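Chain A, query sequence.
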Amino acid sequence: MSIDVEVLNNGSLAETFDVNVYYDDNLIDTENVASLAPDDSAMLSFDWNTTGVELGSHIIKAEAEVVPGETVTANNVRTTTAIVLSGLAPVTDTNGDGVVDMRDIAEAARAYGSYPGHDRYEEALDVNGDGEINILDIALIAQDFGYGIM
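Chain A, predicted structure.
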């Protein structure tokens, strides 16, 4: 799972600092930001391997270290919640790319009205297994929009 963190230098000097990302106070990774100019930002991406992580809700915390002379530190920490569902993609991930998104909905829409033997029919798109790709399949895919392998 990718965790994206944007950092901004609100100070008046270029700064170099580390950013740590945690789940439930367990360190995921540390990245160094080198010579970030004043009023400039940088996007960091942390890879969280959730293998062995308990299923359910976890607190994600990104924390930028305090730099010498920094007086405003309240904005150095941000938290959010991530939900680890499982290591398996849902059946509504019809194209098998690991996430339920517009590509899955678009594929089902293109195959709308098809059935076994029809040239547009793909079994993976018939997510409710009723033998026809219809609005029920598209609704199920849309309901899982955003889910993926965590």
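The CA atoms of residues 3 and 46 lie 5 Å apart. The chain has two domains: 2-84, 88-150.
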